[in-house]
Amino acid sequence: MTVQRGRWTMEDRAEQIMRSVPVEVPPGAAELTVELAYDRSRGVLDLGCEGPNGFRGWSGGARERYTITPGWATPGYLPGDLEPGVWHVLLRLHRVPVDGLDFTVTATTSDKSPPATKQEGPPRAERGPRRELPTVDGQQWLAGDLHSHTVHSDGISTVPELAALAVTRGLDFLAITDHNTVSHHPELTAAGAYHGIALIPGQEVTTDRGHANAWGAIGWVDFRQPVDEWIAAVERDGGILSINHPLGGDCAWRQPVSARPRHAEVWHSGWFDRTWGAPLAWADAWRPDVIPVGGSDYHRPGNDGLPGNPTTWVLADEGDVLGGLKAGRVAINAGPAEPLLIRLGDELLALDADGTVLICPSGARTVIRGDRALLKAEDGLHILETATTEVVALCL
Question: Which domain holds residue 251?
């Protein structure tokens, strides 16, 4: 056992927000357990791990303890052999008070690994109602959510539990985007197949100056690097990077970037008052050809939105959600059964939107009459508003 104590100051944070504490792992070790102790009422220290061969996990401020073994690891961390040598307990000085913050890091190794325990998942979920929509040249509109969290970061649901919940909400796909980790990726295929939903691998690249979702079967994105490095890594692996909740309080986007990503989470569950036009104004200013997406940012019931609030609809070719996203074939509405606007080639289809107003990219306005209306489409973002200017649907 090794115990290291110290005190972080505001000056430490100002100089370098990311810190690490070295830990020696001896040859033959089969288990590493790390505990972080500090007064959580006075500050926040984010926690992670890096081995001699690279990243081994992240839990941010959600945990104060983790274990890594060859066959099992605390959610958020990657199981595997414990290579001997110097490991680093990663600490991000997220919040440090004026008079400093004392901390203790305790690391314990063992040559015996505890047996992995298998957790039973929820029973197969009963699917919620699915909206029947016209196909377009063989492509199908699919309903989903592009932002959610599990126990692998700061959510409360396991991957199977979240998959089951999303199915009951009538979703066809769900991106699980745990913070700064990919430890949930190995679970997605089996859980998605069992519950009948496409689970998209994702990760929320999280810093104190903004968050971004990276989607796709890609490698871990190093949040400690500049944003330009994130973009290059995601593009190299064939994924998509999207700016998250750019006006989201203390996690609003304030990161410098050379080439602005085209995708942005314009509609987040935190957009409580949709007569507030700032998210759409931000999108216009970000870049003229922005591809808007929506995300619930689901963590737990009563916090953020439920999966599918809002719903992102993607016109997908043979279920290729990421392909449809890359092409910008998207629409967003408040929920799976709420008023909807989708594109059918050169036309728009407005559903359950009687009495709303369609605002076209040119500025032209048309009042929608009836529960099913076909209208001419333009190039660009179309908006459905109520008579009180509340945004109820978006469509490219």
Answer: 141-338
